[in-house]
Specification:
325 residues, alpha+beta, eight-stranded mixed sheet, five-stranded antiparallel sheet, 32% helix, globular
Length: 325
């Protein structure tokens, strides 16, 4: 179980608390890691400046949150901002994931394996922000020194968000994808989510699986800097770490063997589901290791993508509530 961290509504103060909790691992591991050595070459670059300008003009309150993280971590803002743009700049970052959904008579079932750098496992946590006045609250899995939303989360409007890394080779100078994921936590309905993703310039690519209390459909959204694809799902569906919507058939991307094989296996398991699936069925899919070389549930220290399971989250979304396990 992960530590739960209560954060306030104030963006800077919330970021500062996240930064304090992340300070040690950032200094002792992240800033000496090989991925960081690649990323730090972007500091001072024209592209990173353009991305920061886009973020500041579109979401200044999330810039305040990142400033709080930087101060809490005792790091320059430029380094924390870069860390929160890592997937917009490199297709080699160790962020994986497998996501699945299945309709059931009891509601929509959703499941997510959060796969990432195993050295970060004991340094992740759960952020909890209580709703206050007209501001929404949320519960979110949090990576060190990272703004919330880009793993799995649920907000007080009943929106569940599950995010899969996409290793796109198409790049833009818009808003970083992690800030877009954070913005979704402040959305009140799925129409606002869609408007948010379509309504701004985007720096990178992501997949979001979204459901909300009172809504019958699950929405699968893939986006790149140049386009957004939205598919309403009415049956069981699985997603891994590459663009799979027909709209992006010719997109330039890096598809690892693990992502390709996990997609094949998760699709096959979806086809085997009964019309009355349970939490246990979804868990069985996400814990599947029938393919020992490239399993869905990843725990091998020699994983080819350098990713292991950090957490598994299960949700059931009904007409009036979100149940978790």
């Amino acid at each position: 179980m992960y530590e739960e961290l209560n954060i306030p509504q104030n963006n800077y103060q919330a970021g500062f608390i996240i930064g304090q909790r992340s300070r040690r691992i950032m200094h002792e591991y992240v800033l000496t890691s090989k991925p960081w050595q690649f990323l730090r070459a972007w500091i001072g670059s024209e592209r990173l400046k353009n991305i920061e300008n886009a973020a500041r003009s579109t979401f200044p309150h999330y810039i305040d949150e990142l400033a709080g993280i930087a101060d809490g971590c005792e790091l320059p803002f430029s380094e924390v901002f870069l860390w929160n743009c890592r997937g917009d700049l490199s297709p080699f970052i160790s962020d994986g994931c497998t996501t699945v959904c299945a309709p059931s008579p009891e509601g929509i079932l959703l499941g997510h394996n959060e796969d990432g750098d195993p050295k970060l496992r004991s340094h992740c946590f759960i952020s909890k922000r209580a709703p206050e006045s007209n501001s929404l609250g949320f519960t979110s899995f949090t990576y060190p020194a990272s703004i919330n939303g880009h793993a799995f989360a649920v907000n007080s409007a009943g929106i569940v968000q599950l995010v899969d890394n996409i290793r796109s080779l198409e790049y833009g100078d818009g808003v970083p994808r992690q800030l877009l994921s954070r913005a979704i936590l402040d959305c009140r309905d799925l129409d606002e989510v869609i408007s948010t993703l379509k309504g701004c310039h985007r720096a990178g690519s992501f997949h979001h699986m979204l459901a909300q209390t009172g809504e019958k459909d699950v929405i699968s959204i893939e986006y790149t800097p140049d386009d957004v694809s939205m598919v309403r799902l009415h049956s069981s569906y699985g997603h891994t770490n590459h663009l799979s919507h027909s709209r992006f058939r010719n997109s330039k991307q890096r598809i690892t063997r693990s992502s390709a094989v996990r997609k094949i296996w998760i699709d096959a398991l979806c086809r085997k589901l009964s019309n009355r699936p349970s939490f246990d069925d979804i868990r069985f899919m996400l814990y599947n290791i029938e393919n020992p070389e490239l399993p869905i549930y990843r725990k091998d220290p020699e994983d080819p993508d350098k990713e292991n399971n950090l957490a598994t989250a299960l949700f059931r979304v009904t007409s009036d509530a979100v149940h978790t396990r």
